[in-house]
């Protein structure tokens, strides 16, 4: 046995991760892929890398030092289960199987439980950063047992992205915690992309600026509070000119956004946990709305405002949009961290929220300086019930709320859709409200379903005899 780590699955992600591992001092990497040509190809293309190519699971296991450690990078779902089954035939108690694919966290919980019974450790690990991240340094979110982290920690630290001197990896929590956190990362990513898209749309429609001019605005924004990978690439995309037509590429791309499902999982999980993650959910719905051309009434079927809106002062409008974007982004991240907090409580994970923000500063798609503020907020108050109530974010929201309201009002009056800007504002005002009309909803529920209600002035559970004399009775608590 000569390899200290193995990779199973050598499509783009697995090959790049294997190359990343092999490039670090002290690593020798056993590689295996179901179709042998991928293994041969990788070895032939990269003679510089310390690979041990293997062509059966037996050979793969025999080439690994104990405890054997294998990272699976195969198509999530049935592929993952098939590889685990094969590895369990050749691995021994104490060995470690890491699933780096995009697994649904509940699958990871199930797999961890089943694999643990064999004595082998199973670690579900979120990997963010796409192909380039896998090769040069991803943000890594491993779950699994403490025992496995002892072996995995140094290896993963050596290949992760580095942000401000720290590797972007931590032992997130037990069993499915890593994949859970990766899922929420993607949900936040959906919202972050959508608020950027809304900002672009508002500026373009209200000021008539060209995509190239708006690219300059984003490049400028990238030097301030909004500095992030997504803002940076937005400028690049907007500046791109189509070679065939000489038009801005953004005008040539079909306006139907695809999705691979992780944003939807985040919204679904938020609903299951009862967490109001409206910005993230709206971002998912915005993509689904875009991708149903048969539902989009583009030919004036549905009436809109009589006149198009034109900003009187373009520069002032752009600044208001920037502030609205910043405020909506704070809401999206706040909601995302609230989902992680609720998930940790529900599934019994100990997750350090500040460290999660820290490991997203490098390697991953939502990497941004802004994440330091989240780490600081949780360092000051680890039990913050709502992230955006931390002083830094409260001040940022105080400074941006007037512009945010103005932009949402303008968007509504002028018929420019801004689903995440506006739903985030509604969420913000919902949290601020002293009293909510939820009281009326409780009254309605009691009326039609005898669902009972609480009173503000005394303890107990009550019901009004709506179809009787409408007197109130104390309800017997059946729980
Ligand atoms: P794919 O998701 O396209 O999967 C292809 C790989 O899976 C091939 O190596 C294939 O082997 C293998 N495979 C599929 N079914 C089986 C099976 N039943 N038994 C054994 N091997 C099987 O590869 P990617 O590299 O794009 O992604 C790998 C994983 O990483 C996925 O789970 C993906 O969701 C995740 N991921 C991807 C990111 C990205 O940006 N692309 C980012 C982060 C995670 P064969 O060659 O024999 O067909």
From TrEMBL:
<keyword id="KW-0560">Oxidoreductase</keyword>
<dbReference type="InterPro" id="IPR008927">
    <property type="entry name" value="6-PGluconate_DH-like_C_sf"/>
</dbReference>
<comment type="function">
    <text>Catalyzes the oxidative decarboxylation of 6-phosphogluconate to ribulose 5-phosphate and CO(2), with concomitant reduction of NADP to NADPH.</text>
</comment>
<dbReference type="InterPro" id="IPR006114">
    <property type="entry name" value="6PGDH_C"/>
</dbReference>
<protein>
    <recommendedName>
        <fullName>6-phosphogluconate dehydrogenase, decarboxylating</fullName>
        <ecNumber>1.1.1.44</ecNumber>
    </recommendedName>
</protein>
<keyword id="KW-0521">NADP</keyword>
<dbReference type="InterPro" id="IPR013328">
    <property type="entry name" value="6PGD_dom2"/>
</dbReference>
<comment type="pathway">
    <text>Carbohydrate degradation; pentose phosphate pathway; D-ribulose 5-phosphate from D-glucose 6-phosphate (oxidative stage): step 3/3.</text>
</comment>
<comment type="similarity">
    <text>Belongs to the 6-phosphogluconate dehydrogenase family.</text>
</comment>
<keyword id="KW-0570">Pentose shunt</keyword>
<feature type="domain" description="6-phosphogluconate dehydrogenase C-terminal">
    <location>
        <begin position="178"/>
        <end position="467"/>
    </location>
</feature>
<keyword id="KW-0311">Gluconate utilization</keyword>
<dbReference type="Pfam" id="PF00393">
    <property type="entry name" value="6PGD"/>
</dbReference>
<dbReference type="Pfam" id="PF03446">
    <property type="entry name" value="NAD_binding_2"/>
</dbReference>
<comment type="subunit">
    <text>Homodimer.</text>
</comment>
<dbReference type="InterPro" id="IPR006115">
    <property type="entry name" value="6PGDH_NADP-bd"/>
</dbReference>
<dbReference type="InterPro" id="IPR006113">
    <property type="entry name" value="6PGDH_Gnd/GntZ"/>
</dbReference>
<dbReference type="InterPro" id="IPR006183">
    <property type="entry name" value="Pgluconate_DH"/>
</dbReference>
<dbReference type="InterPro" id="IPR036291">
    <property type="entry name" value="NAD(P)-bd_dom_sf"/>
</dbReference>
């Amino acid at each position: 046995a000569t390899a200290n780590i193995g990779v199973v699955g050598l499509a783009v992600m697995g090959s790049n991760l294997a190359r990343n591992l092999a490039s670090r001092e002290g690593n020798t990497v056993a590689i295996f892929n179901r179709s042998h040509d991928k293994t041969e190809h990788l070895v032939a293309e990269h003679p510089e890398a310390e690979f041990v190519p293997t062509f059966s699971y037996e050979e793969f296991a025999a080439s690994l030092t104990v405890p054997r450690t294998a990272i699976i990078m195969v198509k999530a779902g049935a592929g993952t289960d098939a590889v685990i089954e094969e590895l369990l035939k050749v691995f021994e108690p104490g060995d470690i199987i890491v699933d780096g694919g995009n697994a649904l966290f509940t699958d990871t919980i199930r797999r961890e439980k089943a694999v643990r019974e064999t004595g082998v450790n199973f670690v579900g690990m979120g990997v963010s950063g796409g192909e380039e991240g896998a090769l040069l340094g991803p943000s890594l979110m491993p779950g699994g047992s403490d025992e496995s982290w002892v072996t995995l920690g140094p290896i993963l630290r050596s290949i992760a992205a580095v942000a401000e001197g720290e590797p972007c990896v931590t032992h997130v929590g037990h069993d499915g915690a890593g994949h859970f956190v990766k899922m929420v990362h993607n949900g936040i990513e959906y919202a972050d992309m959508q608020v950027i898209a809304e900002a672009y749309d508002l500026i373009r429609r209200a000021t008539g600026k060209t995509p190239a001019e708006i690219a300059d605005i984003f490049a400028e924004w990238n030097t301030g509070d909004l500095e992030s990978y997504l803002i940076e690439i937005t400028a690049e995309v907007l500046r791109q000119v189509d070679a065939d037509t000489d038009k801005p590429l953004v005008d040539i791309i079909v306006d139907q956004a695809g999705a691979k499902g992780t944003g939807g999982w985040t919204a679904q999980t938020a609903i299951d946990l009862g967490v109001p993650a409206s910005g993230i959910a709206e971002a998912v719905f915005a993509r689904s709305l875009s991708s149903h051309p048969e539902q989009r009434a583009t030919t004036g079927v549905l009436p809109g405002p009589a006149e198009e809106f034109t900003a009187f002062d373009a520069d002032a409008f752009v600044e208001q949009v920037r502030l609205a974007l910043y405020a909506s982004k704070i809401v999206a991240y706040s909601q995302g961290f609230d989902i992680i907090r609720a998930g940790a409580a529900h599934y019994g994970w100990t997750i350090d929220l500040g460290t999660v923000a820290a490991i997203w500063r490098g390697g991953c798609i939502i990497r941004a300086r802004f994440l330091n503020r989240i780490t600081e907020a949780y360092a000051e108050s680890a039990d913050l019930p709502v992230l955006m109530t931390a002083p830094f974010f409260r001040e940022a929201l105080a400074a941006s709320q007037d512009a945010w309201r103005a932009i949402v009002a303008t968007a509504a009056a002028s018929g420019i859709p801004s689903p995440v800007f506006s739903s985030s504002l509604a969420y913000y005002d919902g949290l601020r409200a002293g009293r909510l009309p939820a009281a009326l909803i409780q009254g309605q529920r009691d009326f039609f379903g005898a669902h009972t209600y609480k009173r503000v002035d005394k303890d107990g559970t009550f019901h009004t005899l709506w179809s009787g004399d409408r007197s109130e009775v104390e309800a017997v608590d059946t729980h």
